């Protein structure tokens, strides 16, 4: 009877260790660079987005060893500059926030794990009323866009990895509720990132 009990304890311990080693989730924090291409349209020639740094938080859940679902939030603060027929050097200093979800496909080559992702998200642009904002009455914009990216994770241990990625989102240019800032065009907002992920 004691042998059977010890065998049961050993089997239960082995199952617990195996389950603990099977990480199905991870959370990461990254530094991002934020930039975008100039956009011309209607009365705007051009709209220019200044480059800045920000922070990205992501959560991934493993559906299979190669497929994950991802949720993202990022935050940055920078300026949008507009040259128009009626306004020269129009500028809005704004907070930019991204909320997005994506499907991630991953491969494994020893410690290297390249991945690609595609998804959808919204960028929220909120004017900051300071000396960097020259337009009175600038309003918040929420623009939906298509997210895509590719990168690689390097496994430091079963629990930690370093992750670098090129990320982009295609969405309408923000106009902050000003008719003379409208372009009716889409632009590419780029947010390359590097950070660390914890698997649990």
UniProtKB/TrEMBL annotation:
Boundaries of every Outer membrane protein beta-barrel domain copy: 9-200
UniProt key word RNA-binding: no
Superkingdom of the source species: Bacteria
Signal peptide bounds: 1-20
SUPFAM superfamilies listed in its UniProt record: OMPA-like (SSF56925)
Keyword annotations of the record: Signal
InterPro entries named in the record: Beta-barrel_OMP, OMP/PagP_B-barrel
Database matches in Pfam families: OMP_b-brl
Entry's transmembrane regions: none
Protein name: Opacity protein
Protein source organism: Bryocella elongata
């Amino acid at each position: 009877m004691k042998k059977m009990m010890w065998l049961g304890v050993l089997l239960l311990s082995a199952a617990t260790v195996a389950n603990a080693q099977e990480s199905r989730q991870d959370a990461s924090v990254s530094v991002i660079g934020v930039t975008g291409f100039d956009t011309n349209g209607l009365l705007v020639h051009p709209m220019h987005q200044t480059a800045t740094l920000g922070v990205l938080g992501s959560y991934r859940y493993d559906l299979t060893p190669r497929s994950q679902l991802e949720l993202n939030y990022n935050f940055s603060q920078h300026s949008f500059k507009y040259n128009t027929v009626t306004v020269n050097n129009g500028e809005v200093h704004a907070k930019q926030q991204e909320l997005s979800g994506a499907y991630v496909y991953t491969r494994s080559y020893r410690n290297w794990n390249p991945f690609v992702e595609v998804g959808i998200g919204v960028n929220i642009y909120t004017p900051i009323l300071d000396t960097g904002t020259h337009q009175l009455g600038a309003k918040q914009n929420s623009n939906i866009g298509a997210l895509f990216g590719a990168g690689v994770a390097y496994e430091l241990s079963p629990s930690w990895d370093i992750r670098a990625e090129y990320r982009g989102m295609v969405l309408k240019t923000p106009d902050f509720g000003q008719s003379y800032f409208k372009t009716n065009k889409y632009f590419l907002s780029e947010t390359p990132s590097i950070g660390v992920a914890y698997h649990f």
